[in-house]
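Trying the structure run again after the queue cleared.
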Amino acid sequence: MTAHAVELDPGAGSRSGLGELGARLAGRWKLGLYAELTRYGLVRDLSHNFQAPGAKIPLAVRPLADRDLAALFGHAGAATELSERMEVAWRRAFIEKGARGGFVAIDERSATPCYVQWLLSPRDNAFIKKLGGFPPLADGEALLENAYTPPAYRGLGVMAAAMAQIAERASDFSARKVLTFVATDNIASLKGCQRAGFYPHLLHRRTRFGFGLITRDRFETLPEGDPRRSMKF
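Done. Tokens:
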């Protein structure tokens, strides 16, 4: 099964843009006057030997290209679920803010992009600060952010397999540890991260006021021996 093809209707671009704007506004409204979010900051130590898991389809990883965006996000305009439109809108907003370091996993049977995630380094700390919600990266650290799998490729083990391979690209800029952040109640994603070699290292508490316009972040390192470090999701 392949992802949806690019929409050829000349009016589709404007309709898609309006749909994404609506999804972003809906996401902002959903935050309400007060909201709390708790996430695990998971880490993978690249110095430890780790056997990357396989997926149910053959995958290859390469840098993200503009031509990949239609295959990854082109279905969103026809999506009936607001949550799916919001997921795509958030990724497009991330790109518009200047994200670099994107990687895609390719379904080798059809050369179709089937997963995307961004790998950030300490040189991206100004961008990370602008995003908010993440600690600055120290030398030797990297951050994996904004993973997304199109609906047609979910349930095939793509996330864990692709994430494990993308994390290893951090060694190209001498990173030894790779961080990623996942909500504590997002068990499916936590399981995928764990399969990709990540384990809980930090606890991030974010408080939002006024529909997300004001935010406060606290980061706590989980102490050695804390059972959350070795818990199975």
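The first strand starts at residue 34 and ends at 45. Worth checking whether this holds up in the mutant runs.
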